Amino acid sequence: MKVIVYGYGVMGKKVCRAVKNDANLELAGVVSPVFDEQPDVPAYKSLKEVTGEVDGVIDFSHPNNLEDILTFVKERKIPAVIATTGFSEEALQAIREASKEVPIFQSYNTSFGVAMLNKMVKEFTKELYEHDFDVEILEAHHHRKIDAPSGTAKMLYNSAAQSIDGAHAIYDRESRHQARERNEIGIQSLRAGTIYGEHTVLYGGDDELIEIKHTALSRDIFAKGAVSAMNALASKEAGFYDLETLY
Fold first, then answer.
1. What does pTM read for this prediction?
2. Relative orientation angle of helices 151-161 and 112-130, to the nearest 10 degrees
3. What is the per-residue pLDDT across 105-135, written as a single tens digit (0 to 9) for each?
4. DSSP label of 179
C-alpha cells in the first residue's frame, strides 16, 4: 500500500519511519503546511496537490486539516487512520459520516497493546466480578496533559461496565463518606513528569489482587500502532473503527 502521512511534527516523523519499516507499506509522501526539514519523499502543503497513486492516509496533524483529509479519501475510496486529537463533536460526526463511504479508524490512542488490554478487560471482568472482585482503573500521564481521565481510561471503563449491571464511575471519594458500592468502578488520574501513558485495571478480591497494566515506554508505540491500524483497514469494508472494533 502506498501511504500518505499527514503531519510532520514529532509524531508525523515517527509515523514516516514506521511506514518505511513496514514490509506492506510504502511512504508515498508527506503533507504539512510547514516543514522544519525536507523529507526524502514528495512533500505537499495540501492533499489537493497530490496527483499520484495513494492507497491510504495516516493523520497525525491538526483538526483544521480534517476536511482536506475526508474529501481526499472519499474521492479516492481509500482508508484513513485518523489519530489527531482535539476534535469537536461536529468533527467526530463528520468522520462517522465519511466512514459510511470508506474505512476509517479514529482513536486518540493507536497502541496495539492498549487494544489487547481492552480485549482482556472485556474477557475477564464478568467472571471476576461474579466472584466478588471489585474493579478500579488508574491512569497516569505527563504533567502537560489537560484532560482527565484519559480517553483510554474511559474506553476501559466502558468495556468493564458491560459486564456489571448498574455500573457507574466514581472519580472522587473525598466527599462521599461512605463505603464502596458493589457495582461502582473507580477511575483515578495521575499527572506527573514526562509519563507517556500508563493504564492499570485492578481487580480486588478477598486477600488477592489482579492487575492488568499497559505502559507506554515511548511515543514510538503510537506510530507503530497507526501502521498496524492501516494494515488492518486494508481488508475492511467501509465503516467506523476504533481500538474496540478494529482488531
1. 0.80
2. 30
3. 999 889 999 999 999 999 999 999 999 999 9
4. P
Query: In degrees rounded to 5, what are phi and psi of residue 76?
Result: -90, -10
What are the backbone angles phi and psi of residue 202, rounded to the nearest 5°? -105, 130
Model confidence over 171-201: pLDDT tens digits? 988 888 899 999 999 999 999 999 999 999 9
Q: Is 143 a known active-site residue?
A: no
Distances (CA, A) of 120 to 51, 125, 128: 43, 8, 12
Choice among 20, 62, 122, 145 that is catalytic? 145
Alpha-helix runs per DSSP H in the chain: 10-20, 66-76, 89-98, 112-130, 151-161, 220-233
Give the active site residue among 141, 199, 214, 224.
141
- Distance between CA atoms of residues 243 and 117, nearest Å: 10
